[in-house]
Every structure is written in structure tokens, then in C-alpha cells.
Fold Mucolipin extracytosolic domain-containing protein.
Amino acid sequence: MAGQMASGLHWVQNSPALLSKRDGQQDSEAVNHFRRKLKYFFMNPCDKFRARGRKPWKLTLQILKICLITIQLVSFGLSNQMMVTFKAENLMAFRHLFLKGYSDHDVDSYAVYTKSEVYDHIDFIIQQYLNLGNLTAGNHAYETSGGVVMPLSLCQQFYRKSAIFPANESFHIDPHIETECTDIYPLQPLTAKANQQVNLTLDFKRLLSVNVYLKLKAINLQTVRHHELPDCYVFSITITFSNKAHSGRVRITLDNDVGINECKDWTVTGAADRTILSLLLFDSLIILACLGSLVLCVRSVTTGIQLQSEYAVFYQSHRVKGELVRQNGVCEWLVHPHHH
């Protein structure tokens, strides 16, 4: 009798129901703990501060980074505006310097109609280029290469052969285009008519265009007032006398291709020097803030990936454990049905 009672007590203590209950309590605690862990991971910084008193360092860093980058973007926009303005003003200055009798409303209608006007305008361009240092109100200078001043290039394009007789309504033409160029150096000033000294002769019946190429340099000093280092500009100017239509109207255009380079040798003294140093420190602070934000973001993503893997293992283990408990309960009931 006593043996039967001991056996029954042992079975009750180790019965599938009690084991399932104890395992269920442990599983419930583990599930609640993991649920709180997941909930905390997806909390916003304010909820985390209320839950555990954790200071929102990441949020503070992100706000600081946004403010710094916004200030930098505004500064970049102002600098870009100064660059665009400088380029546009130089283009307008070059048109007034090198185009004879130019006015601002003549951008699309500037043209000449006689041979003498073409020669006069070419001579005007050459003379203005040679006397640039005495004429320009800006800080323009000639382009140099290897210590040698770059010349003005005067090129004409024309048909190889052309015999046109409008009165007889006949013509003979070889459409192949040839180009002839002449270089004029600024250190060799011309005293008489420039087109005569360079031996420029234009055959207007064959002439397609006359192109004048010249390069000038300038420095955008207005950026110093805005606490930025000035840039050095190279202006590649092309002046075109277009006679492609042979209509008697030679259209003149001036185009400007701009290259921006970092100045090789510069010195800024006084308050501007300290301001530029402060700007460099500000840029360094932005770089550090971005690096810190990157590290925190990588850390958050890594934690999320680890939590995902942990969740997969947790779910798999509890699902297998639940199946084993159910299977053990069914087996015990089949062996000892009268105890149930």
C-alpha cells in the first residue's frame, strides 16, 4: 500500500501536466522577457528615456548633424551663386571689351553686313586683346604656358574651291573645308591695322567663318568677404563671325568656356585668415558628426540583425519544445489512462 502511494506521488510530481505547467511558466517568463526586449528595441528615443532613463544620444547627434549640414548647404549655395554671378558678369564684360559697339540687347542680333565692317571688328578684337592690361577694370591677365604668354589665334574656315556666278545662275564648288590660323602674341603689339600686319585676307565667296580664340585668367576675390578661399578662373573665349548662309549678314557671337582651378600660391591675412581657419574647423566638425552617425547607424543595424537571429532561434526552440510536451502528454495518457 505504501509502495503504491509512493509510486502515485512520484507520478503526480512528474506527471506531464505538472511538467507542462512548470515548463509553461518558464516559457511564459522567457517569452515575456524576449517580448520586452523586442519592444524596447523598437521604442523611439523618448520612450526609451521614460522606460530606462537612457539619454537620446543618437537623436541628439542626428539633430546636430542635420543643423550642421543645413548650414553647410546654405553656405555652399551662396558660394555657388557667387561663382555663377562671377561667370555671367565676366561674359558680359568680355562682350563689351571685344565686340565693337556692343550693347546688352544685341545678344541675338549682333551682326555686320559689309566686308569693311568685318575687317574693322577683327582689328578691334586684336587691338583690345593687345591692350587688355590698360583697358579692363577687372583683374584679368593673359594665360601663360611654360612662362610664355599664350597667343590670340585667328582662324578662318572656307571651302577648298568655289566659283559662284549668281548672274548666270551657275557655280562650281568643292565642299571640303580648309582651315588657316594665325597666332598673335600680346608682347608684340601692332601699331597699324592689325588685319594688314597679320596678312589677313578673306575670300567672302568661300568663307564659312572666322573664329578668334583667346584665353584669359581671373581670380574671384569676392569670396574672401564671405569667408572662403578665392578660386582661379581660366576663360576660354571664342568669337565667331559666321558666314555659313552667305546671305550678306555675318553674325557675331562670343562664347565663354570657364575652367575653375585652385589657386597655387595664396596668402590671406587678418580677420579673413582666422575666419577661413574657423571654416576649416567647421568642416572637420561636420565630418566627425557624419562619421559618428555612421558608426551608430551601423551599430543599430548590427543589433537588429543579431536580434533577428536570436528571435529565429528562440521561436524554433519553443516550437520544438511545445511539440515534445504535447507528445509526452499523449504517451503518458496511453500508458496510464486510469491516472487521468
About this structure: The radius of gyration is 42 Å. Residues 40 and 125 are 76 Å apart (CA to CA). The first strand starts at residue 111 and ends at 112.
